[in-house]
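Chain A, query sequence.
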Amino acid sequence: MKQLPSLTELRAWMTANPDATRRDIARAFGIKGAAKIDLKALLRELEGEGVASRRRASGGALPPVTVLEVLGPDADGDLFARPIEWRGQGAAPRVILLAPKDIGAGDRVLAKCEAIRGPDYDYQAKIIRKIGANPQRILGLFRTGAEGGRVMPIDKGADRDWMVGPHDVNGAQDGELVLAEPMGRARFGPPRAHVVERLGDPTAPKAVSLIAIHQHGIRDAFDDAVVAEADSAQPMPLGKRLDLRDVPLMTIDPWDARDHDDALFAEKRGDGFTLWVAIADVAAYVRPGSELDREARKRGNSTYFPDRVVPMLPDTLSGDLCSLHEGVDRPCIALEMQIDAEGNKTDHKFHRAMMRSAASLTYEQAQAADDGRLDAQTEPLAGPLGDLFACYRALTRARERRAPLEIDLPERQIVLSDEGRVTSVAFKERFDAHKLVEECMVLANVAAAETLREKGRPLLYRVHEEPSPDKLEGLRQVARETGLVLAKGQVLHTRHLNRLLAQAEGTEFDEMINMATLRSMTQAYYAPQNFGHFGLALREYAHFTSPIRRYADLIVHRALISAHGWGDDGLSPWDVEHLEDTAKAISEAERRSMTAERDTNDRYLAAFLAERVGAEFAGRISGVARFGVFVKLDETGADGLVPIRSIGAEYFRHDPDAQSLTGERTGITISMGQQVLVKLAEAEPITGGLMLELLEVDGDALPVARGGPARGGPKRKAAKAKHKSAKLARKSRRKG
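Chain A, predicted structure.
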């Protein structure tokens, strides 16, 4: 790293480059990392001389979700707005509002912005909602009546219908799924509502996630008091925070991410690295005992569906003030770590800070930069990105020594059209950029747990216990059936399971062994006591890195605030007293969200495949039960059932230990992991169920049982009696 320029050198350079930004200055003089804070002090001196105006690391851009003030319509009737919070260079950008409804000059709105330059505007914005407005929404079936109709809520707890007048139907047809808003209770009769959105066929894909939300009790509407509290929040001042705004921290997320919890920066230091992990300071906005806090605790986490997100916090916070958007000042809790050449964390320190993201990158962008393909956004950050990936590769050496569980299952992504229909089911690409972020987050979570344990502060640990003996024995049985080995008679470590996974890698049983290993694991949960994390091979672990979407992380943030004496927004006495209850509540909320997400994916896949009933698909047997065989389809990852009654014309013996079915007459054995060809017989979008017909097993057609059908009647009973007699004889011989 070069030394800072003198004031004379800096003055001369800036006189020759009057339009340069602070980032341009840093690049010109080779100034990196924390040294940019010293550069900022020099620039302040030049500002006093009139040589420099205030320069920003970015020329200024609006976050994708931001609060706007409506300016009013122009002569053509178009409605324009300006951002409430603007710290970029020059005048604030002009924003045109798309399809505004009931919005006027002076109103404040939360909007999704897109940079599209027009003749007299810089952005287009779609309104999410008006600030201060929080209309109740009713999801239900519309039924036509003599005068309008009524909405019958699908919520199980609903005890009344809502009447809809003829002028409030909004074109809704009988049997459609609709969203409605209340209009107030009439003096006589049931309450009234008006239809605001037609969702169409309740079995259609667009309705799937809404049905799951209500079916599983996912809280998807915020009370007025919660929204009002969020809307009253203001951007945080620097105050006593450490100023990291000139450190080029960057976020790396999926391309469609609306909120950014975490940002990263690494700098080479001798043989090792200084690694910064900055996490959104949600605790500064969501204080103990507030309406926001109570609602976040009830939700426990955000819930993610293919077509929507049900956030833990209102959009004003989750999409704007708490999100680490590019070029915008945001409060954070920053972790500074020292990493040696072998990837070991040798020291760490937490700070309450203010940051400004240098770039919001996608995983694809970050990976392309590491591969040498820089774009306009990553080219100025080539140095920090190079150091970040070099630090990650050092961390992988430490990870290999720790040997966490290495389950490798392909992740599929449901791709929807604008209308909410499934257009494809694609495999998610997994890059080193994904692993980089994951490894840095794991390290930060460990540092949070270590710090709070050392300071004797209460917290919520993320606990993952080792598999039960019964589940391990089931995994051993699956391994034996495929000719692989999981040793017995030793204390189980993740390296033993990794050895099994390595045996299966590249074989036809690869995915099956990975799936069976995953199923043998216990469910992770939150607890005030530390029982370790088996899967990650860590003695202590806490969630710290995602406070926008997980309440557990917010508790850990508050514990860190209390431990460091940073303010009065740390853990409250109530938080500490009810830590056990909180752990139980958010663990249950997490399981509820996972079930809702899985059910929704199943329904989307069933709707996608409903048009292909009668088609043939390759798959692999993923489970065997007395009543049939479960098959995972290769193309989509969807799970379907082959009922036992549809497999051949013979009786099948079920062996639960070996997870197999054996034909009484043909001797065919159907077991876990076999490659099969099936025909789709039924696809039910409402339930998400798929019924399949088995055609081939391991490339061979099913054999035909001779001697007539063996189902029911005396022949089936005789077969069962024969099997029972043979079993008794074997037991008698063993006793003898």
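The first strand starts at residue 65 and ends at 73. The longest helix spans residues 579-609.
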